[in-house]
Amino acid sequence: MFSQRSIRNRFLIQLIVASAALLSIFSSILFFYIQSSIYDEKRQELIKLAQNISTYQSLHDAKRNDADILLGVSIELVERHTNQNMLFVEHTENSRTYLRLFYPFNFQEHSYIQITKDISPTKKLFKKILNSIFLINAIGFILIVIYAIALSNMLTAPIRTLSRKLSNMNEHLIRPIRVDELPEEFEPLGETINRLINRIQNFVKYQKELFIGTAHELKTPLAVIKLKNQVTLIKQRDAKEYIDAIKTTNETVDEMDQLVSAILNIGRQEGAQLDNPEDVDVIAFLKSKANDFELLAENEGKSLQILLSPGAYAATLQLQLLNQIVQNFLQNALKFTPEGKKVLLQSYLDDTGLMIEVIDEGCGIDDSADLFAPFKRQGSKGGAGLGLFLAKSAADAMGADIAIRNRDDGLNGTIASLHLYSKLCCNLYAK
Fold first, then answer.
1. CB of 419 within 8 A of CB of 400?
2. Which residues 6+ apart lie within 8 Å of 169 measured at CB?
3. What is the DSSP string of 383-414?
4. 79 forms bridges with which residues in the sheet?
5. In the chain, how many domains are there?
6. Which residues in the chain land under pLDDT 70?
7. Contact by Cβ (8 Å): 343, 360
8. How many whole angstroms from its chain centre is CA 390?
9. Residue 338 carries which DSSP code?
10. C-alpha–C-alpha distance, residues 166 and 177, integer Å
11. 367, 295: one domain
12. Which of 117, 246, 265, 371, CA to CA, is 20 to 30 A from 106?
């Protein structure tokens, strides 16, 4: 039983049906063409004979000119009260088939030449031709089935090869597929699978680092709390010393609480990835976000400049994920920019979509470091080191790209960029 869900089986059935139909149509056309050609030849022979008889007005003279045609032919002169020019009639008698022609001889006397030819051998020939065509069609159909099976197996071989390679992989043995070994038609599929494998590898790598880093980050302050408490309990102390020890413990607990909150944000972000995308005016969102951070920048003695283009730009995405990325960029920029310096938030169109950039005047980054790995920190500033990890996860979920690089205009600082592709967005030129 062929599965309805199998593309290979559907292709196999369609190829067999189409090829069999084409073979049947071609065979039928060929048979009827042969039959029509032979019948036309027989009719023309009888017409030629009738014309000779009518021309010579004598059967004896006609026989001398058409001796070959007269084999198996009977000729009579009959009377018919009709005005037809000539008439062909085919009839069967005593298991024999005859073709009869009535050709006008003398219209005034209503006389017609009746020529009757035995075409039974021709009928037998047609039957043999038809049987041969049926036999050829049967053999051809079998060959079509064999060819269709072989062709479907050949076309699905790369898929089976990919399936075997993927089924043998696990999180420790994930390897990219060699695209150059695949047929050209399957190269885009192989490249897509390789990109997916790369994302899975990064996900597994970051998840491991996240779990290990979380355990390490929580273990260290717990050890500090325990050690301080043990030192405090070694001897009797006055109330002030106990209060100081408790304050130190609370500070450590606050650091742990920040870490736990950052880890909870990962769970919230994964939930946001499952939200239905909504239509968002990205430029309006950036303006609103910039207004909030302008106040923070002024408080810290810094300035936030805004340069947004075009006037409006629509995207279909999860707003919470976009907020996660832009907020992280702006927070990091303000964190690492010294007092009296400026941060620039800008957007512009490129060939493939909308580019959003946050440019600071901080200390720059180490180009060799994997900034998007969890618990990776730059500089001496505090933090859990999960911000860029969350931003990268959000961008991947939206189908966008983010990047962090040093400025190349001679100034210190970094450029954090988010690229929203045109498949997510469309330009809404502001009036």
1. yes
2. 175
3. S-S-HHHHHHHHHHHHT-EEEEEE--SSSS-E
4. 111
5. 3
6. 1-5, 56-72, 168-174, 202-203, 205-220, 255, 258-259, 261-275, 370, 373-386, 423-431
7. yes
8. 29
9. P
10. 9
11. yes
12. 117
Using alpha carbons only, how large is the chain's radius of gyration in Å?
Answer: 46
From 251, 273, 295, give the residue that closes a domain: 273
In one letter, which amino acid is 155?
Answer: L
Measured distance CA(28)–CA(350) in Å, rounded = 61
pTM here? 0.48
Identify the residue whose tokens are 């010294």.
338
CATH number for the domain spanning 129: value is: 3.30.450
Based on the domain organization, do 81 and 189 belong to the same domain? no
Do 211 and 117 share a domain, yes or no? no
Over residues 22-41, the pLDDT tens digits come to: 888 998 898 899 888 988 88
Secondary element (H or E) of residue 165: helix 120-167
Q: Which token pair is 155? A: 């076309």
In the three-class reduction of DSSP (H, G, I as helix; E, B as strand; rest coil), residue 423 is classed as coil
C-alpha angle 400-402-404 in degrees, rounded to nearest 5? 175
Tell me if 154 is assigned to some domain.
Answer: no
- 252 found inside a domain: yes
156 lies in some domain: no
**H helices of 235-318, where?**
239-273, 282-299
Same domain flag for 218 and 348: no
The helix/strand/coil state of 41 is helix
**79 in a structural domain:** yes
pLDDT at 214: 64
Place of tokens 């106040």: 295
Show the tokens assigned to 322: 């976009």
312-338: b or e for each residue (b if 16 or more CB lie within 10 Å)?
ebbbebbbebbbbbbbbbbebbbbbbe
Task: For residues 317 and 399, state if they share a domain.
Answer: yes
CA distance 12 to 18: 10
- List, for residues 170-194, the tens digit of each pLDDT value: 656 667 777 777 777 777 777 787 7
Q: What angle do CA 336, 342, 347 make, to 5 degrees?
A: 100
Of 106, 124, 143, the residue that ends a domain is: 143
Please, what is the Cα angle at 401 between 396 and 404, to 5 degrees? 115
Contacts of 364 (CB under 8 A, 6+ apart): 406, 407, 412, 413, 414
What range does the domain containing 412 cover? 278-427
The CA angle 234-237-239, to the nearest 5 degrees, is 140
d(CA 377, CA 430): 40
Burial label for 389, CB within 10 Å (0-12, 13-18, 19+), is buried
Structure tokens at 395: 């961008």
